[in-house]
C-alpha cells in the first residue's frame, strides 16, 4: 500500500454520488451468512439490514446507520473463492461491461438490476482478479469513510502491473502514477488527480492458492487490538501488524478465509 487517501477527520466523510471509476462499495459472498455477520459485527461494530436478494440472501452492513459494505450468501452448490470484492462506479454498466470484454476481461454475472438499488455486473480482469461494476439508482454505495469500521483503500495484488494497469486505464479512464522506487512494481490509479486505488505487482510472491485479487483495507482505531480481536473471533493473521508510511497495517482473514487488511492511520 503505497498510496492512500488523506485523513477524513474524526466524523468521517459522507459520500454522495461517486465519480465513474471510483471504488464505491465492497461486498463479500460467504457460505455462512449468520456467522459472518457475527464476526464483522463484533470486529467493526456493524449492524445489518436486508438488501437486494437477486443473487440470494444479502444484507447491508451499517455503521451509525450509514451503509458501508454488503455480505451475501453463496448457493450451497457454488464453490467459489470467498473474497471481498470492490465495486467500481459507472454511469452505464452495460457499456462498461462491453468495454471489459473488448479489453480482454470477462463478465461473469450480469449486467442485471438489483431491485431499485441500481444495476450491477461482476467481472474479472485479464489476470483473473474479480471486481464489480455499480450503476447507482437508489443505492449510492458506501455512505461514509474516514472512521474505524469503514473501507479505507482498495488495491489489486497481481503478478505485474504493466498489462493489467492498461486494462483498468482503458475501461475506467484512470491516470497512472508509477511508484518512485525502481525496486517496487506499483501503480497508483488516479481520477482527476486524486488517488482512488492501486495495483501492486508482487511476482512470485503472489499466493498460489489465491492468484491475482483485489485487497480491501478497513480502517481501525488500533491495528494491534484489531488483530487480537480477529484471532479471538476465529480469524487468522496472514501478515502481522507492522508500521508503514501510511499507518500501522496487518493482513488477515476471516473464519471463512476471506482476506482483508486493517489499517490504523498515523495520528
UniProtKB/TrEMBL annotation:
* InterPro entries for this protein: Anthracycline_SecMetBiosynth (IPR052164), Glyoxalase_6 (IPR041581), VOC_core (IPR037523)
* Signal sequence interval, chain numbering: none
Superkingdom is Bacteria
Q: Which residues form the VOC domain?
A: 22-136, 150-265
Q: Which Pfam families did the record assign? A: Glyoxalase_6
PANTHER family for this protein: CONSERVED PROTEIN, GLYOXALASE-RELATED
What name does this protein carry?
VOC family protein
Origin species? Streptomyces osmaniensis
